[in-house]
Structures are given as structure tokens and as C-alpha cells.
């Protein structure tokens, strides 16, 4: 059987997550500066333009009758708004939560386009985001409650003897939030993209293996399409879960249990 | 009371005589000609929409369609493929490993 020899290589399914230099600029200035545009930077810029562009173009110009685009954005806004109202109760955090949601959602969705780069599969983005948020939330808690913020680490009604142990446990669980928030997003997206890459490599081999195998492969291909749909759903769910948890962390910092 | 004083008092009530039919439309409205000329040249009909381009074509009102989203997806696919091709697909083209 004559195999298609030009495409026999198999790349690592993890190669898609590599951050590569697209454009570098080194200059012997200020010591030695290296200015690099990576695919991460490029796609971050693209995501920013997509979000701002869609919101600019999709807005309704204060007309009474909404267009379909403005209905879309208004429903997103209404959902995020109700979530912030229910969780935090103060709408001052709404702009932050809304932009965070759209950033994660659009970066996940852009990542679902074949050959593109998903920025949330970079640890520096997802963990960096969650760490930044948790540091900010801690500063917020300290700012509001001053020294009383540390009562957060002692559950109500704890016997004095147990306080050192419980403070340690609570502190660890508090710090673990910073990791778990980022890792949840990162791991879900990475797992999905790796799975799709592996399956599509298999499917490509099977589709190029003769007519009968081609027809038989249509069945797993349908399954593959379903998994792609699942990935789209994961993009939404992860963005939603991320902002939901950020809401509850902010609430914790404001209300201290 | 002096008559001039009465007139001055009434001057607040009686508006000054600026335009009378005779003054404005003397000899069948010649004085209004520049005005008529100006207004007759103004565009007629409802005011055109202030926004144009992509927003009017694909986003506003009944023109709202999914076309921009499809174009963004196609554009990003092309960009991604181009980068992928230039970064490594090119090297594997004739040298499988």
C-alpha cells in the first residue's frame, strides 16, 4: 500500500502550547534590551482587539430596538450582572468581573480555531491571572478590615488550643486558592486541546489510509466533532467558573465569612 | 411728567421696530432671496445614518449577521496556518522524520 509519505511525521501534541518568538529586537541600550513579540503576545493583542472591536461595533447607539449583536452582549452583561449582584452584592466590581469573563472567554474561543494559539494554556497567563487576583483580593481585605482581616483564618468558635493548627490549615487553603483557580482553567483547556490534537492526528492517518477505512473513519470523526463541541462548551464553562470563584473570593475578602 | 420720560418707560414694554412686512418683503420678497437660496440648497429627506462602514453593514439593526465572526475565524485560521507553516511545517514538507 502506498502511503502518503510526505506527512508521516507526528508532532508532539504538546507542541501547540509552545511559546515561540515571532519577532525579536535586540539592542545594546540600557545594558542590553531584548524586545520580543511571541505568539503569546500576538494572540493577546488579537484577543484584545476582538473584545474591544466587538463591543464597539456591537453596541446599539442608544437605539430603542436592539440589534442581534447588542442582544448578545446585553444578555452576557445581564448574566454577569446578576452573578455579581448575587455573589458580591456590590456592582462596583462588575466592570472587573465583566472584563475578566470576556478576556477568558474570548481567549478560550480564539484558541479553538485550528492552528491558533490558546493563551490560557500558558501557565504564565492562567496562574499569573489567578495570583494577581488573589494578591489583589488580599490587599482589598486588608484595606477594608485592617488587622481584623486575619480573623478570616480562624473559624468562629475555635478553642484556643486549636488556633495555631487551624490558622496553618486555613492559611494553606487560602494560598491554595491562588493555585487551584489558575490550574483549573489551565488544566481543562490544555487537556482538551491535547486530546483534540491526538485525535485529529489519528483521524488524519485513518482518513489517508484507503477508501474503505476512509468511510469507516467517518464514525469516529462524528465523535471527534462532538468532542470539539464539548471543547466549545468548556471554553464557556471555564470562563464562567473562573469569574464565579473570583466573585466568591472577593465576597470572602469583603465580608470575612 | 416729561413726554420723553414716558416714552422711555414704555420703551421697556414696546419692542423696537426691527422688521415690518414692508421692510422685509419690499418689492415681493427680494430681501429674502439669499435666505431662500440657502434653504433650497439644503439636502432633503431623512437624515442619513451617522455610522457607516462595517458597523452599518454587519452590526446595526436588521443588518446584524454572523458574517464578522466568520471572517474573524477565517482570518485567525489563515494567520495561524501561515505562522505554523513558516515556523515548522515548511521544514517537514520534504523531510519526514
TrEMBL record, chain A:
Enumerate the UniProt keywords alphabetically. ATP synthesis, CF(0), Hydrogen ion transport, Ion transport, Membrane, Transmembrane, Transmembrane helix, Transport
SUPFAM superfamilies reported for this sequence: F1F0 ATP synthase subunit A
The record's GO molecular-function terms, alphabetically, read: proton-transporting ATP synthase activity, rotational mechanism
Membrane spanning stretches: 29-57, 92-111, 117-142, 149-169, 175-196, 203-226, 232-250
Q: Which GO terms describe its cellular component?
A: mitochondrial inner membrane; proton-transporting ATP synthase complex
Matching entries from CDD domains are given as: ATP-synt_Fo_a_6 (cd00310)
Q: How does it sit in the membrane?
A: Multi-pass membrane protein
**Stored PROSITE patterns:** ATPASE_A
Q: Where in the cell is it found?
A: Mitochondrion inner membrane
Task: Read off the NCBIfam families from this record.
Answer: ATP_synt_6_or_A, PRK05815.2-4
Family recorded in the similarity comment? Belongs to the ATPase A chain family.
Q: What is this protein called?
A: ATP synthase subunit a
Q: Please tell me the species this chain comes from.
A: Pisolithus tinctorius Marx 270
Lineage, uppermost ranks: Eukaryota, Fungi, Dikarya, Basidiomycota, Agaricomycotina
TrEMBL record, chain B:
Which Pfam families does the record match to this protein?
A: F1F0-ATPsyn_F
Q: What is a GO molecular function of this protein?
A: proton-transporting ATP synthase activity, rotational mechanism
Membrane spanning segments where? 65-83
* InterPro entries recorded: ATP_synth_F0_fsu_mt_fun
Please provide the record's keywords in A-Z order: Membrane, Transmembrane, Transmembrane helix
Q: What is this protein called?
A: Uncharacterized protein
- Native species: Pisolithus tinctorius Marx 270
Q: What does the organism's lineage look like at the top?
A: Eukaryota, Fungi, Dikarya, Basidiomycota, Agaricomycotina
Amino acid at each position: 500500500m502506498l502511503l502518503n509519505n510526505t506527512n508521516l511525521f507526528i508532532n508532539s501534541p504538546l507542541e501547540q502550547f509552545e511559546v515561540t518568538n515571532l519577532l525579536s529586537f535586540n539592542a545594546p541600550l540600557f545594558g542590553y534590551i531584548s524586545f520580543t513579540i511571541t505568539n503569546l503576545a500576538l494572540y493577546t493583542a488579537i484577543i484584545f482587539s476582538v473584545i474591544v472591536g466587538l463591543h464597539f461595533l456591537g453596541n446599539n447607539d442608544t437605539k430603542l430596538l436592539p440589534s442581534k449583536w447588542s442582544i448578545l452582549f446585553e444578555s452576557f452583561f445581564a448574566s454577569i450582572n446578576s452573578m455579581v449582584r448575587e455573589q458580591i452584592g456590590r456592582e462596583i466590581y462588575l466592570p472587573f468581573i465583566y472584563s475578566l469573563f470576556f478576556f477568558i472567554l474570548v481567549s478560550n474561543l480564539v484558541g479553538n480555531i485550528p492552528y491558533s494559539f490558546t493563551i490560557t494554556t500558558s501557565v504564565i497567563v492562567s496562574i499569573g491571572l489567578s495570583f494577581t487576583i488573589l494578591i489583589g483580593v488580599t490587599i482589598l481585605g486588608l484595606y477594608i478590615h485592617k488587622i481584623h482581616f486575619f480573623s478570616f483564618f480562624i473559624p468562629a468558635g475555635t478553642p484556643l488550643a486549636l488556633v495555631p493548627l487551624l490558622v496553618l490549615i486555613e492559611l494553606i487553603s487560602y494560598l491554595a486558592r491562588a493555585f487551584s483557580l489558575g490550574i483549573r482553567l489551565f488544566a481543562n483547556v490544555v487537556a482538551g486541546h491535547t486530546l483534540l490534537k491526538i485525535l485529529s492526528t489519528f483521524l488524519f492517518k485513518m482518513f489517508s489510509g484507503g477508501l474503505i477505512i476512509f468511510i469507516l473513519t467517518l464514525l469516529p470523526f462524528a465523535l471527534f466533532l462532538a468532542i470539539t463541541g464539548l471543547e466549545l462548551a468548556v471554553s464557556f464553562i471555564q470562563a464562567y467558573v473562573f469569574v464565579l470563584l473570583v466573585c466568591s473570593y472577593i465576597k470572602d475578602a469583603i465580608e470575612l465569612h | 411728567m416729561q413726554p420723553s420720560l414716558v416714552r422711555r418707560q414704555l420703551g421697556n414694554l414696546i419692542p423696537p421696530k426691527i422688521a415690518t412686512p414692508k421692510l422685509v418683503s419690499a418689492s415681493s420678497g427680494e430681501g429674502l432671496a439669499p435666505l431662500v437660496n440657502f434653504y433650497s440648497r439644503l439636502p432633503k429627506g431623512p437624515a442619513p445614518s451617522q455610522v457607516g462602514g462595517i458597523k452599518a453593514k454587519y452590526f446595526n439593526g436588521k443588518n446584524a449577521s454572523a458574517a464578522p465572526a466568520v471572517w474573524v475565524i477565517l482570518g485567525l485560521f489563515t494567520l495561524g496556518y501561515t505562522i505554523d507553516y513558516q515556523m515548522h511545517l515548511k521544514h517537514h514538507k520534504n523531510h519526514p522524520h
